[in-house]
Amino acid sequence: MTQLDQAISDLLSIEGATGAAIVDLGSGMALAHGGNPGFSLEVAAAGNSNVVRAKLNTMRDLGIQDQIDDVLITLGQQYHLINVLKDEANKGLFLYLTLNRANANLALARHKLGVVARNVRV
């Protein structure tokens, strides 16, 4: 199992996880993905790269000199979490995790997502 596949496996082991991807911000392509959230993770990866780029552009326009930690999108039945990787070797990548809202613990999921994010090596 590759390191990226292991990271996807670790993400999918989070209670309530239905899908996960490691995404290249520049291209919007998923480098690895898994699970079955009920929609295309490839399309979601591309769309969420637009979300992250839009926020980075807005921060630049506002003169905010900081980094994005997480982006949280709450839907009626799902949570979508985006964690932008900060390690220099992983710059330009983010983790994308979908959770079933009915059985996910959001605080614990964010914590575990952060642990996986710190250990991803590409």
TrEMBL record:
Top-rank lineage group of the source organism: Bacteria
Name listed for the protein in its UniProt record: Roadblock/LAMTOR2 domain-containing protein
